[in-house]
């Protein structure tokens, strides 16, 4: 579904990603983990076209995205849930969601958009309860649900999420990740950047570990969970406890 | 049967993407964690590896490098992260010590499971492992792989041939694992133990750890009544599990999702095209404890790129033709022991065990003497004229194959047989250097 090859990307001539390649197959949840500054967000933004890569290519559904333009990516069925959520805080929950389908207004019937709205409400019943509330008045967890729901309104085949658990309580994180798992079961493909390695590797099929803008490990989630380097760096295990 | 269809039947473009990702990440790891590679790659911009072909920008790793870093210098993880150590036989000096993490063992089991499945072995089979359970990789690799597919493992190494046969008959062994030469010894013992094939349930053999010819395969299959499969692997890379034959048996499928293969001319070090023989070079893409970059194996084979009817998409390698360090140059002619094996296998009166002795005469002429083990059940062993006739016949056959003059000597029966799949030194080079 998504292939990234040899991406070199950064800011003001300073490369953050140094020749990085990865792929996401249809129907997979793929996790990107790594420390702060490893290049995780830059990677998502480079794929989404928010940062223009200096080198490399992004291939989505067999089509090479030469300029990585955001609109082109959206038309190919890719949606980004950015870090910080970027909601319209003075607009209602419903308005935010409807805006998520903006690029589909011309090509899709109103009823099918409303049906999708209903399915988002089914996935996150809390959003239905707060349908008329402004986004700015929601809790952090509800805002994250809204950000994911808004991405789903464009009916994407690939959803990219940047730190969906950031700043949320453990119980809320659990709910968010359960929703991602449901989306996978519905056939969605998900690429997720996440610092909470343990939680995301429980639901992801595979993962990549970034370090200083390069790919250090890749493998199935169970392989990464068994990797001692990953355990020490991201799962909080001490040297002595690994042997236990 | 295909054990892992997702990876074994992967579209070529997807496989190459996976290989590139894994190559880029293993390069990061070895540069970060292995002193040898940190130095070796210091003059190379590994960020410029944009394609699989770019691997040619990297230097080779040789056995000498591994020896110089004995025992732990090539390890890419702290020692407490290793869960197992295996060693090479060390026939040419100190053994190499190879480490495995938990994940390495987990992946290795899956690779061996691919071998078994390709040979049609299932959880209904009884797998008798005659490889030596020492520090070498073969026995343990096949043991855990068999358990992975749910087969019943019979770890029978170290037992006498008579005992092996008893186990084979009584436990209803259906799959034999070992060296091809040991399989032939078992076939010989069938006669002496007065056992018939009908009393055995044996149907499959998976053999390796030494190169063996198609003639040897035919011999094993006819005498043991089984289908014999080849596989390839070396301890430095993982052990068995690098490549294996499917039911088509027209080349060995390389587990390309874990090993990136190249074939080079051992003299010029340039890549050779598919179909042309050269030295196998592998990069281990997923090994955590002991990853190797462009490792020159010394093994001679060619690559087969034609699609296989079995449906696997991995490139295949031919069966081994020999090793670069097995190749002997006599009077300017290249000779491989496998050529001699081809000539002597199946000839009655002898066993397929031989040594090649090289000497230099006073006039600087180089001589080749092939010592072959006589068969104990040869009825004419005490008739000089018959023995001499057989010797002449073999001399002519081998000379015709090698293109140089050689002599043949017979040695006493049971003086060259190798127990438990251990390797023996085939070449005795007494020539003046």
Written description of the protein model:
The complex is a heterodimer of chains A (244) and B (433). With 244 residues, chain A is α/β, with parallel strands linked by helices. Helices cover 39% and strands 25% of the residues of chain A. In chain A, the strands form two sheets. Chain A has a six-stranded mixed β-sheet, with helices on both faces. In chain A, strand 7 (158-162), helix 7 and strand 8 (189-193) form a beta-alpha-beta unit. The longest helix of chain A has 16 residues, at 170-185. The relative contact order of chain A is 0.18. Mean pLDDT of chain A is 90; it is low at 240-244. The longest helix of chain B is centred in the N-terminal third of the chain and has 22 residues, at 12-33. Chain A binds chain B through residues 3, 5-6, 8, 18-23, 25, 208, 211, 214-219, 223, 226-229, 239, 242-243, and chain B through 14, 17-18, 20-22, 24-25, 28-29, 32, 46-50, 77-78, 80-81, 101-103, 106-107, 286, 288.
Which key terms come to mind for this protein?
heterodimer; A: 244 residues; alpha/beta; six-stranded mixed beta sheet; four-stranded antiparallel beta sheet; 11 helices; disordered C terminus; B: 433 residues; nine-stranded mixed beta sheet; 30% helix; 24% strand; globular
């Amino acid at each position: 579904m998504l292939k990234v090859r040899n991406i070199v990307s950064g800011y003001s001539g300073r490369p953050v990603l140094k020749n990085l390649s990865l792929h996401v197959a249809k129907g997979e949840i793929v996790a990107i983990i790594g420390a702060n500054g490893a290049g995780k967000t830059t990677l998502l933004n480079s794929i989404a076209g928010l940062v223009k890569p200096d080198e490399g290519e992004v291939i989505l559904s067999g089509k090479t995205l030469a300029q990585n333009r955001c609109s082109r990516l959206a038309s190919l069925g890719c949606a980004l849930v950015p870090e910080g959520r970027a909601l319209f805080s003075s607009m209602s929950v419903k308005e935010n969601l409807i805006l998520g389908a903006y690029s589909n207004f011309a090509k899709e019937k109103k009823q099918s958009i409303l049906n999708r709205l209903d399915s988002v409400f089914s996935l996150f019943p809390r959003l239905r309860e707060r349908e008329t509330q402004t986004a700015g008045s929601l809790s952090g967890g509800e805002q994250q649900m809204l950000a994911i729901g808004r991405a789903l309104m464009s009916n994407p085949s690939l959803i990219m999420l940047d730190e969906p658990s950031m700043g949320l309580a453990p119980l809320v994180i659990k709910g968010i990740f359960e929703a991602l798992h449901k989306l996978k079961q519905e056939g969605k493909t998900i690429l997720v950047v996440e610092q909470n390695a343990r939680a995301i590797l429980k639901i992801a099929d595979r993962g990549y570990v970034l370090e200083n803008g390069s790919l250090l490990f890749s493998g199935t989630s169970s392989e990464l969970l068994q990797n001692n380097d990953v355990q020490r760096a991201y799962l909080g295990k001490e040297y002595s406890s690994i042997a236990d | 049967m295909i054990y892992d269809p997702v990876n074994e039947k992967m579209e070529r473009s997807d496989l190459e993407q996976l290989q590139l990702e894994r190559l880029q990440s293993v390069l990061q790891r070895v540069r970060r964690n292995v002193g040898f590679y940190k130095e070796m790659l210091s003059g190379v911009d590994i960020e410029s590896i944009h394609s699989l072909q770019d691997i040619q920008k990297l230097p080779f790793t040789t056995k000498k490098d591994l020896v110089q870093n004995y025992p732990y210098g090539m390890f890419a993880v702290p020692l407490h992260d290793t869960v197992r150590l295996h060693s090479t036989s060390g026939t040419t000096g100190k053994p190499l010590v190879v480490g495995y993490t938990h994940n390495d063992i987990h992946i290795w089991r899956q690779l061996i499971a691919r071998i078994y499945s390709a040979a049609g072995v299932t959880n209904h089979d009884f797998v008798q492992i005659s490889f030596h359970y020492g520090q070498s990789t073969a026995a343990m690799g096949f043991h855990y792989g068999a358990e992975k597919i749910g087969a019943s493992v019979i770890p029978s190494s170290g037992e006498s041939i008579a005992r092996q046969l008893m186990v084979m008959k009584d436990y209803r062994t259906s799959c034999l694992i070992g060296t091809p030469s040991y399989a032939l010894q078992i076939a010989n013992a069938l006669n002496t133990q007065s056992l018939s094939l009908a009393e055995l349930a044996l149907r499959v053999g998976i053999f390796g750890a030494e190169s063996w010819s198609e003639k040897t395969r035919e011999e094993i299959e006819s005498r043991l009544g089984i289908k014999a499969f080849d596989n390839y692997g070396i301890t430095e890379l993982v052990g068995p599990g690098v490549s294996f034959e499917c039911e088509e048996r027209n080349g060995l499928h390389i587990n390309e999702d874990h090993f990136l293969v190249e074939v080079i001319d051992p003299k010029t070090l340039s890549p050779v095209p598919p179909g042309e023989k050269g030295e196998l070079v592998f990069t281990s893409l997923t090994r955590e404890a002991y990853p190797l970059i462009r490792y020159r194996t010394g093994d001679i084979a060619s690559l087969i790129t034609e699609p296989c009817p079995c449906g696997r998409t991995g490139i295949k390698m031919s069966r081994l033709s020999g090793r670069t360090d097995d190749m002997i140059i006599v009077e300017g002619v290249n000779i491989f022991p496998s050529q001699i094996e081809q000539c002597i296998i199946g000839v009655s009166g002898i066993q397929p065990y031989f040594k090649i002795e090289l000497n230099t005469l006073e006039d600087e002429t180089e001589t080749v003497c092939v010592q072959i083990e006589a068969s104990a059940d040869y009825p004419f062993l005490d008739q000089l004229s018959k023995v001499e006739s057989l010797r002449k016949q073999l001399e002519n056959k081998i000379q015709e194959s090698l293109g140089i003059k050689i002599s043949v000597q017979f040695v006493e029966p049971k003086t060259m047989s190798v127990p438990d799949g251990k390797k023996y030194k085939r070449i005795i080079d007494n020539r003046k250097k």
